[in-house]
Amino acid sequence: MELALRHPDLISLAAGFTDNETLPVDETRGLFAELLKARCTGEPLLQYGNTTGLPALCARTAARILSQDAATGEGIAVESRYAPDQMLITHGSQQFLYLVAETLLDPGDIVVVEDPTYFVFLGILQSRGVEGRGIRLEPDGLDVEQLDAVLTRLRRERRLHRLKLVYLVTYHQNPTGTTTCFAKKAAVLDLLRHYERAAGHPLYLLEDAAYRELRFQGPDTASALTASGGLGRVLYTGTYSKPFATGVRVGFGLLPEPLRTAAVRIKGNHDFGTSSLLQHLMARALESGAYDRHVQRLQARYARKAEGLTTALRRHLPPHIEWREPTGGMYVWARLPKRQRSGLNSPLFRRALDRRVLYVPGRLCYVPDPTRRAPDHEMRLSFGNATERELRTGVRRLGEALAQEAW
Amino acid sequence: MELALRHPDLISLAAGFTDNETLPVDETRGLFAELLKARCTGEPLLQYGNTTGLPALCARTAARILSQDAATGEGIAVESRYAPDQMLITHGSQQFLYLVAETLLDPGDIVVVEDPTYFVFLGILQSRGVEGRGIRLEPDGLDVEQLDAVLTRLRRERRLHRLKLVYLVTYHQNPTGTTTCFAKKAAVLDLLRHYERAAGHPLYLLEDAAYRELRFQGPDTASALTASGGLGRVLYTGTYSKPFATGVRVGFGLLPEPLRTAAVRIKGNHDFGTSSLLQHLMARALESGAYDRHVQRLQARYARKAEGLTTALRRHLPPHIEWREPTGGMYVWARLPKRQRSGLNSPLFRRALDRRVLYVPGRLCYVPDPTRRAPDHEMRLSFGNATERELRTGVRRLGEALAQEAW
Predict the structure, then answer these.
(1) Were A227 and a residue from A186, A334, B282, B401 both cysteine, which residue would form a disulfide, CB within 3.0 to 4.6 Å?
(2) ipTM for the complex?
(3) What is the C-alpha R_g of chain A?
(4) Whole domain around residue A150: which residue ranges?
(5) How far is CA A74 from the centre of its chain?
(6) Residues A184, A341: contact at Cβ < 8 Å?
(7) Whether B39 and A28 lie within 8 Å, measured CB to CB
(8) CATH number for the domain including B313?
């Protein structure tokens, strides 16, 4: 933000903002006109609701995830695992992540994350004094063998009781675009079940599906809720903000007892509950079909923008820079040769800024983990907010900055 | 909530919900129709904003408090104390209170509150492992001499360094309806300044003005921001939710550095920032005059409902029950004779429930404080949500329950 203000001509390939041109202005106006037409339908939008969430929205959300999972043909989508009374509606999925951390994590606890992972979650861990362990990310999800090795080591060090949670961003991951295959989710749950006795408490899998609905290529993948061992062990979160409108802060999460009761109590202390106005808007958007129509438009739009970005990458980036075609989400992860630093204090970052283009240095997406050195030669490029023209220009500028590097 | 569901015919004089019949359904529809008419005005509602708050809303809110304070003729309303860059917009003032607690309070810290006080704030303190000290509330605000004595005692016990905050609900207080006079705010700040050296850090006054705009009788009172010693020591919070619509979660607070920077970082971890949609709605409501018109209507409405409640109290309650005429807000505090218990497990509470009327037991509004015994013979009655008819019926039922007491 600060950089963007100081460099007005800056093209940001860094921001996690979504596409402006497709924001559902007309649809939202129409939904409010309808909802607020009469007092009887309008009053509930303007009054307090309960802390857990609008029952209609909880039910619709639970049913939606169930049907998405069932359609994949993977795992077993058991209805009871999606019970609306395990649902919590939050001000964005970010708030759900925060509540889970507040509910479950004490200073000195350990959380396993992907290497790299969603950097704002790392901010939450840091603020709670929680240690991280990073697990290498492969093209189909985390390296399960390395997870096994880390768990074995924690057990040997008698620190397994401090482990509470494995956090995975499983669909079109922020920052790499990676989707975790179902087999790996199942394997993670098997491992967690295996080590639970030594830990002395449940080991939870927190599955962050924030980008699941932004898939524009390939088949969907079943959530960990459908896996054997998923019952009572999986916390699943998603959001309506990114697929509909980020100004409408409505996220959701499923979580088992006793976590949910504790999280609801904390949510009550935060804000009593998510804004009724926002919840009714989303419930009506889902019910009327406006949401699904919008998501389809958005998927097509992001597919086009991803294509624009990757075409530009092929044209302007040196050939020894690695990246993969995205199949959804908003991000492409580019990997420079190892000796090539990309961090905030690197010459490359400064040269890119001189050329008025901004990326997220990959380093920021690695949890501080005393057991390994964090890579510093990667970058996250977003095709979410920039226009197609800006994507082309931005990548050309980035290519110029890279061309000046000594390889 | 749970009780209300099990007793459908229940009249709740307990809920902090606001009046349904005056919820601004038409106004909100009109504001959205206007804001979402064109893409250029609509897009900002649907996109992420910054974490601190919509600049236009920050500026308007700061100016509003300044002009309210200046109009009182009390204290000195210095513009710099209301700088928009000290403002933080939150999902209700509740979130502001939570962020302040997270920013400032560690387990084992001490917070001074009024006896009685806003009970959800007590929930926050409890969840953070913070100790409370209750200060007797007089008709014009807390007993300043007792505050002095408590501070002296903390200093003598060498515990003053654990004190961080004095929390006062200064306008039409929840739960008693008490408004703190300006002289007492100034006296509290004098005391805090006096004891600061012994504490070794700033002692803050957190002024909760949630009900300030719901005044329907008597003059306004200047905030503590205008008092000598207020600079850098006062945190002031208010809300647009209660005066406009509780389904629209928009509150605000002013806080000095370094607290604000820390609170903004935590808010970023919570939810990135308050929903743009809600903030633009409120900014436009303020700008267009719709908000002020609504507040005037609401004040008149609450004045009438307060009158309805107190008329019923005079008719149906035994004469030895004490209460005061409210001048704003939504609550009347009733005090039974001391031997008469009113708590959740008391015969009176159960008899009231049998007669299908609910009140908030006064006991819940007292902080657990090892240095005094919490009274258990009071009740909070709300005229916010119940209709005038329900108020009459509810008080009649309460009178019947009270008539069965052995006095």
Answers:
(1) A186
(2) 0.95
(3) 21
(4) 41-289
(5) 22
(6) no
(7) no
(8) 3.90.1150.10
